[in-house]
Amino acid sequence: AQTVTQSQPEMSVQEAETVTLSCTYDTSESDYYLFWYKQPPSRQMILVIRQEAYKQQNATENRFSVNFQKAAKSFSLKISDSQLGDAAMYFCAYRSTHTGANSKLTFGKGITLSVRP
Amino acid sequence: SAVISQKPSRDICQRGTSLTIQCQVDSQVTMMFWYRQQPGQSLTLIATANQGSEATYESGFVIDKFPISRPNLTFSTLTVSNMSPEDSSIYLCSVGGERAEQYFGPGTRLTVT
């Protein structure tokens, strides 16, 4: 079974600075998907960024980018120019390429990010 | 991305009662997922609902406690039966996107007293 580990429960960043959130995972599969989701206090889960394991190039979405290290099974999220609206809980998630019920997401425990003005 | 609504957004229920949560999607989807998020915790998949077949439940979740209906391609319900305070959680439904991602509803916050 796949597992996702986020070992840092909380992090803090100064507004306009850069922060990196860590995530590691364990799988025996060679192809899969990885995601970062953001959950603000409104509790709405928002997709931040997506990475396909067969792609070596790291995904980027505006101020958000990932450092995907497949051999190390590491998938960290970098937030540049942090804004007050980035304050939220961030979840790393894994998804197999299989379909049907096996297309579920496996989440890490999450990390609470606070942004200091 | 799909637009997903859930009803109710929150409820306070007495122990021993049942609550049915509705999930409506603005487009037809094959798979719908139900997750539970206990206070301050991560999301745990309860079951996967495929239209026209029985839901597939994850280990630790049973149909008698969490019956699911999936009458068509845009709608699903999750019932939390014979509730206890341990069932106090946020319940979220989600659907699959075109690029393997999932989109989530706004969640239902359930408090059992």
Can I get a quick summary?
The complex is a heterodimer of chains A (117) and B (113). Chain A is built from no helices and twelve strands. With 117 residues, chain A is mostly beta strands.
Can you give a write-up of this model?
The complex is a heterodimer of chains A (117) and B (113). With 117 residues, chain A is an all-beta fold. In chain A, 0% of the residues lie in helices and 52% in strands. Chain B is built from no helices and eleven strands. The model of chain B has no long low-confidence stretch (mean pLDDT 94). Chains A and B meet through strand 6 and strand 11 of A and strand 5, strand 9 and strand 10 of B.
Q: How many separate helices of chain A? A: 0
Shape of chain A: globular
Number of helices of chain B: 0
Helix content of chain A: under 10%
Work out the number of β strands of chain B: 11
Beta fraction of chain A:
over 45%
Strand element count of chain A: 12
Q: Give the biggest beta sheet of chain B.
A: 7 strands, mixed
Structural class of chain A: mainly beta
SSE inventory with pairings:
The complex is a heterodimer of chains A (117) and B (113).
Chain A: E1 3-5, E2 10-14, E3 19-21, E4 24-26, E5 32-39, E6 46-52, E7 60-61, E8 64-69, E9 74-79, E10 88-96, E11 105-107, E12 111-116
Parallel strand pairs in A: 2-12
Antiparallel strand pairs in A: 1-4, 3-9, 5-6, 5-10, 7-8, 8-9, 10-11, 10-12
Chain B: E1 4-7, E2 10-13, E3 19-25, E4 31-37, E5 43-50, E6 56-57, E7 68-72, E8 75-80, E9 89-96, E10 102-104, E11 108-112
Parallel strand pairs in B: 2-11
Antiparallel strand pairs in B: 1-3, 3-8, 4-5, 4-9, 5-6, 7-8, 9-10, 9-11
Comma- or semicolon-separated keywords:
heterodimer, A: 117 residues, mainly beta, 6-stranded mixed beta sheet, 4-stranded antiparallel beta sheet, B: 113 residues, 11 strands, 52% strand
